[in-house]
Every structure is written in structure tokens, then in C-alpha cells.
Amino acid sequence: MTDDNYLPLHTCHVIEPTATINRFQFLLHFCAASAVLYYHASHLFFAFHFHLVSLTSVSLAFIFLADVVLFFMWLLIQGFPYRPVSRSVFPERLPDDNTLPALDIFIMTADPDKEPTIEVMNTVLSVMAIDYPSEKLHIYLSDDAGADVTLCASKEAYSLARYWVPFCKRFGIAVRCPEVFFDDSKIDQQDSDKEFSQERQKIKVMYDTFKEKIKKLKENKYSCATRFQKTRQEHPSQIEIIREEESNSTDKEDFTIPSLVYVSREKRIGVQHRFKAGALNVLLRVSGVITNSPYILVLDCDMYSNDPSSARQAMCFHLDSKLSPSLAFVQFPQEFYNISKNDIYCAEIRQIFKTFWLGLDGLRGPVLSGTNYFVKRCTLYGARPGGTSNSEEKEISRLKHKFGNSNEFCLSLVEKSSHYFDEKITTYVNPQKENILTLASCDYENGTQWGERIGYLYGSVVEDYFTGFHLHCCGWVSTYCFPSKPAFLGNVPINFNDTLVQNKRWNAGLLEVALSSHCPLIFGISKSFNWALQSMCYAWLAFWSVFSFPLLCYGIFPQLCFLNGISLFPEVTSPCFGAFVVVFLSSCIQHLREVFRSGRNLTTWCNEQRFWMMIGLTGQLFAIIDVFLKLVGISAVNFDLTNKTADKTQIKRYENGVFDFEGCSLMLLPATTLSLLNLGALIGGAWQMIKFNAMERLFTQFIFSCFILALSLPLIEGILFRQDSGRVPPRVAFWSLVLSGSIILFMFIFC
Ligand SMILES: O=c1ccn([C@@H]2O[C@H](COP(=O)(O)OP(=O)(O)O[C@H]3O[C@H](CO)[C@@H](O)[C@H](O)[C@H]3O)[C@@H](O)[C@H]2O)c(=O)[nH]1
Ligand SMILES: [Mn+2]
């Protein structure tokens, strides 16, 4: 092919005029925010001059500190809007199928109660049927619970796949997750093709039987022979290669189906198992000796494949000869199937997936996001971009030092494809089982570099962010593939407590990285301009939880001052007031522009403002406490699994956009207390404002309190007016009433 008729596999362009407007807005906001900081600083100086300790001076001090933190975070966030890009891919230009690389798919599950087996199996079936040569696809299911039901269900799923996969490929089914396909409510067209309808009916019966079997498995009526006495916390490693039987070939038509490997690593009480990162590292090793595909797709168990062409889309980047030598992974957005129209918990994570990652894509690439990414295997083994390894690095004894004492695994590092798997005849030569089981044992990693330099990194419960950051630091880049049809769809928590627990984990994990030796502020910031911006973005995420500090300050001091008729902000008629208005409006407009650009509306804007406030005062605050407790050695930060089940009342409340606080712990207390305090201050302050005719002086604080009240309405309602089980738990309501009441009383008595 000559250069003239070379057709690119993908294109990329900067999103304009957004990028230019963003830069202009930066200048405007910078000036106004500096003026506000100057105003606060000078007032603080005068206040301290007159009274060292008074409500006014203390409040001004905290508001000043809060603004400094906000300003710092605002500076860090500037990398995201600097150069947003959008990409297109052309999978039809890929070389023919037999030159496509092999792909291992990792699916992670950890608890059959919180993660319904049928959903996990739907994920498995959906990826088995993707549009990619079956003999080049290998699916690995990691089961951290070591649950028999998952193993048995996998075998059942495999049997079903022998019909499901050919059916999908023959009729070119658009969504290859059986549950979605057979969900009658989602079928929009009456298909007249008789053969198709007959086949569909036949497979539907099979699928229903399959579901029935799994239900029985769960009820223990249907048993599957087990060899071990197992519990979730303690079980030996177990690996089963579920593969195609040579017989029965008449049913299978011309299609082979991908292999499925069930992996449950060893677990022992008292031994750290490193959560998802630990499970991923086991899969890396086990798959290394079985199939050793050069690319890996990682999926959470609830993320089914919604577009069978996703692997080919990803290959448009990985197979581009220019980009490929430095490309570590292709990230797809996380999108969700069970989000309600209201999306009160902002589960869409719009800002991350619809704005920030587009921005990072224009720098060195998006953050590794846990699921929906296609990573190049060797990058996880510590390889450097474009680097050729010297012969020393290929010496098995040296490799063992880093990678552990397995001949098989170390051989897999130097050989292109594993000797256990013969690609031509697509059957496994049965690997020596003992050797593979060792790779999944608790002790294998002792004394090796796994988790520190190799594989997924330990040390943070956001193993994805941490590992991706490490890859970027090693010089790799990533790309963001955001097709209009969602490539994968997952499940979001639909009550406030689950959302809170999830957000707390993310924030704690990010803060762990911020406080580690890998702090993005130190790491890599001086390499180049793009790198500096990229590191700032990483740092913004790492320090995300510090937003709780300005939120606490703004939730306490303006209210206390308003209650006492003290003014914290300039009068409406003063020229300084303008700077405050510009800062406030500019940040609102920036946010609104983002929301509209993501195809969302004013409701999303309100929801995000409210959610930001609520999480800042709960999840983020407790994340800081969690990390602090870890630092002083009192407790560890845990990976609390997100619940993926819900009952009917919960679903109904969620669909109706009603906040569901059921099950919330005292973690909710700061948010509820401050919302009541704001309500009290608003009433008391407004009364004072009228009585002393201080409209002009206190107007800003009045408006500010009204704004907070509007944001905190669901909390107020949940404490004071609701009776259903989704209200704020009585224990939390009681304590927040006591606390906010005492603060207000204290103010009346002593100030
Ligand atoms: O010890 C564990 C804990 C979790 N998981 C699996 O990890 C996945 C993600 O867990 P989930 O509870 O669904 O967490 P989320 O908060 O929804 O996950 C987000 O955040 C995680 C980091 O905290 C990332 O790993 C995920 O990919 C990302 O979707 C699930 O498939 C789990 O089965 C394990 O395999 N072992
Ligand atoms: Mn999840």
C-alpha cells in the first residue's frame, strides 16, 4: 500500500470552539478569583487587628482557607478543559481476521449474594458472542468467593453458549446479552423471518431452563460435585478450563466458541488478598501460562457487552503502527443500563466519562477506569514503550526474581504465545495442573515485585487509577474510545447508602495515592507541558476528597455569621461584590456548558450541585478519616463491594426520583446536621435582617443560605417530613437535630 491511499484506522480532532472558550474562561475566572482571595485576605487582616478571637475573625479565617483550597483545586482541574478531543474509529479498515491478535477477557466477581450469578453469566455470554474470531478469544472468570454456584453456573453457561454464540453470529444480533435480548419489552420490531423466529424461540426455551437451573443451584436443590470444604474467606485455589467437547459437533454449525476458564484464587484468613488488584494479578499469571494473549479486556461482572464490535474498535488503536508502540490501553466509558431519568445520585458519573476523559485524551490519555478497557499485556509486566528487552532480561533466573518462582510463567514472558495452547487446533494441551494452581496461591507473590512494580499495583483500593497512573509515568499513553452506541453497560447503586459507600471507597483510594510516594503532584510534573497538565488532572482526582474542607467551612461559618447578623461578604453596592458575582457565575456557567455539551439539561446541573455537596460532607469526609486511620495504623481501607441487587420498593423510589436513605449510617450526620443548621440560620438570620434593616449587608448570605436550602431539601424532607422507610434513619435524624439545635442555642446564649 502506498502512502497516498493509506486509510487511517482512527482519526482525532480537537473539540472547538469548546477548547478556546475554556481557555478564555480560565483567564476571566483567574482574575476574579484572585480578587476574591485578595478581598478575604485584607479583611482577615483587619479583623485580626481588632479582635484576635471573635466569631468574625475565625469565620473569615476559615472562609479564606476554604477559598485557598478551592483556588488550588481549581488550578489543578485546568488540565481537563485545555484540549478536549474526540475520536472516530474505522473497524472496517482492519486487516483480515486471521491477522487479528488474540484477546483474553477477564471478568471479575467476588460475591454471589451481592452480584447475582445470572447477571455474571449474562456478562460471560455477552462477551463470548462478540464479533471477533472465536478461536482468538479466551474468557477468564475470576471468582473471589470461590462459590460452587458460580463454577456450576459457568459450566451451564458454556453449554448454553454453544447455541447462543452461533445464533448471535448467524443472525447478526445487535445486543448479545441474552437477558436483554429476550426481554420482550425491549423488542421494538416484529421480525417476520420465520427461521429466525423459530431459532429465537428454541434458544429462549434454553435460556429459561438455564435461568431455572441457576435459581435451583442457588437454592441448593441442584448440586454440583465439589471437592473442597470452602468458605468465602478460606478456600484453596481452583482452576477449571471449560472447553468444547469434540463430540456433538452437529449442533454447532460452523462456529467454534471461545474457551472459558474459571479461576478462584486461594484465600486464607489472616493473609492479605489485596481485593480486586490481587485477583487481577492472579488472572494475569494464570492466563499467561494458558493462552498468553497479547491484549486483555477487563470487565466487572456486571458490565455486559452491548456492542459486539467493541474489540474491533479497540484494535483500531492497538493495531495502528504509529500509535501502537506507545499505547498501553484503550479505555471505553462506563455506561449503565439501570439509571433512572432523574439520576438523583449522579451515578452516570457524567463529569468523569463525558467531560474529563475527553480532556485527558487530548493530553496523554484517560485514567484507567477499572473496567471496559483493552490493555496490552506486556505493559503490565513492566515493559517500557518501544523498548526492546535485552537478552539479560530474558534469563529465566532473573525473571524469577521479579515474577516469582514459576518456570511456566517465566517462559510465557519470553515466548510469544504459550506452549499450552495450540492456536491452530484450538484445543488445550492440558497444562500441568499443580503448576497452574501454584500461580493462584496466597504465597506465590511473596518476595516478588507483584503489586509494586509488576501487574496491578497494591496500596490503593482504586487499583485502576493507581496502575494507570504508573503506566502513564512509565511513558505509556492511553486513548479514549467513546462510540455513540455504548460498548458496555453496567449496573449502578440505586440508594444513597450504596452510593455513599462506593464514593467513600473511591475517595479513600485516591487519597491513598495522593499521600503515597506516587503523589501525582511530585511525579512527572516537570517532564513536559502536556505532562504537567496531565499530572495536575491526576492530582485533582487524588485530592478530590479535600473538597470536604471548603464545604464544611461554607456549611458552618456563613450560617453562624448570618444568625448573628455578621457580614462576611461585601455589600451588594460595593465594587468588590462584582468579583464574587463573577466567580460564582463563571463556575456555574462552566458547569452548565459542560452539562449541555454532554447532552444533559438543567436537572442534571442541579443534581450534580446537590450531589457534590452531599458527598463532600459524607463520603469524602469519611474517606479522609479512613485514610488517616490507616496512616496511624488503626485500621485498613477496605474494598466494600458495591451491592448489585435491589428490591421493588427501592427500585420504585429510585424511578420516582425520591431519595432513599434507608440503611445510612451515622456517616450521613455531617450533611444532615449542616442542612438543619442552615435552615435554622436562614430563619433566624432573615428575622434579624428585617428587624435591623440590614438588607444590604446581609443580602449575599441570605441568598447563599437559600441556595444551600434548595440543595439540601431532600435531606430536610428526609429528617422532618417523611415517614416511609426511605427517610433519614431516626437515629441519624435524632442526632442531627440535637447537634444543630445545640449549636444554634449556643450561638444565642454566647454571641
Ligand atoms: O475483592 C474484590 C473486590 C471486588 N472485585 C470485583 O471488582 C469489581 C468492581 O467492584 P464493585 O463493587 O462493582 O465496585 P465499583 O465501585 O462499582 O467499581 C469501580 O471502582 C473500582 C475501584 O474501586 C474499580 O475496580 C471498578 O472497575 C470500578 O467500576 C467487581 O466486578 C467485583 O466483583 C473482586 O474481584 N475482588
Ligand atoms: Mn461496579
Keywords:
single chain, 751 residues, alpha/beta, Spore Coat Polysaccharide Biosynthesis Protein SpsA, Chain A, 8-stranded mixed β-sheet, 24 helices, 50% helix, binds uridine-5'-diphosphate-glucose, glycosyltransferase, cellulose synthase (UDP-forming) activity, Nucleotide-diphossugar_trans, cell wall biogenesis/degradation, transmembrane
Explain the overall architecture.
The protein has 24 helices and 15 strands. The chain folds into two domains: 281 residues, no CATH class; 395 residues, Alpha-Beta Complex (Spore Coat Polysaccharide Biosynthesis Protein SpsA, Chain A), CATH 3.90.550.10. Strand 3, helix 4 and strand 4 form a beta-alpha-beta unit. It has 751 residues and is an alpha/beta fold. Helix content is 50%, strand content 9%. The N and C termini lie far apart (83 Å). The structure holds uridine-5'-diphosphate-glucose and manganese (II) ion. Uridine-5'-diphosphate-glucose (UPG) binds next to strand 3, helix 8 and helix 15. It comes from Rhynchospora pubera. One of its GO terms (molecular function) is cellulose synthase (UDP-forming) activity. Pfam families: Cellulose_synt. It is found in: Endomembrane system. Its main location: membrane.
